[in-house]
Target: Nitronate monooxygenase
Amino acid sequence: MAFRTRLTDLCGIRHPIIQGGMQNVGYAQLAAAVSNAGGLGLITALTFPTAEALADEIARCKALTSAPFGVNISVFPTMRPPDYAAIVDVIAQAGISVVETAGTPAVREVWDMLFAKGIRVIHKCTSVRHAVSSERYGVHAISIDGFECAGHPGEDDVPGLVLIPAAVDQLSIPVIASGGIADGRGLVAALSLGADGVNMGTRFCATREAPIHDRVKQAYIDGDERDTTLLFRPFRNSARVGRNSVAQEALRRIEQPGSTFADVAELVSGQRGKELLASGDLDSGIYWASMAQGLIHDLPSCDELITRIMAEASEIVTERLTGMMTAGD
Model:
């Protein structure tokens, strides 16, 4: 059984599954593997130092797949903002038709540039109110991040079981469920709640094509749903990461009265996180991890993973759920 949804139609993909845009993970080899398996792979634009380097990575991805893939662009405060106009030009020149965005309201300037190029935008939100505002501005789909997710879950602490249908009730554009999804059960649950597909990040980190060290992949397999740490709550910039000694020390410092981000900046730097993914030294920095790691027990290829998810979803719908139905009296 295949599932045709508004997401598959929007992106021209076989299966309603998107690989999350992940810093220092969303390279061509992973994006192409996901797209070749029928999902939508994403290259993460800000992983690359320049627009030219992003163009080279897009070219590498095109050499690895003829299937559609997209690019992720995140917009967050920084001392040296990227050249978003150059990034958008590279994406448009490469013929990329779908971009995932995330970040602060300043992202609207990037949307305007993307809309002008005829590029479809999937925007990631952590609340219904922001999703509604984004739809009004013109984005084409919403990826709604539940509290279970890796990265930044927002400050409302609403899990997917409530957040997904709440978003669906308020939106007319496609909704993609994100956060805590790792298998066919999660896909069927999301579709049942009204979503048009799912976005998975942590689950795709634990695949053979993910360009990170095997020790990091094993950490996702070994960890359970409790093995994450929520950082930066007092700064209203909550972030869910894998539980390790660095995350625990950062949490200890943050919980001290009067703490500021400067107290933990050297522990949680992006450079340290990038080096951790490459070296596999799990106590050298922080790394993103969602509660979905409690559902991860192996290291398949992306093709094996997506094939299995779709088979599980089909079995749940055609056998388990159908078998529960009884004729009315």
Summary: The longest strand covers residues 69-75.
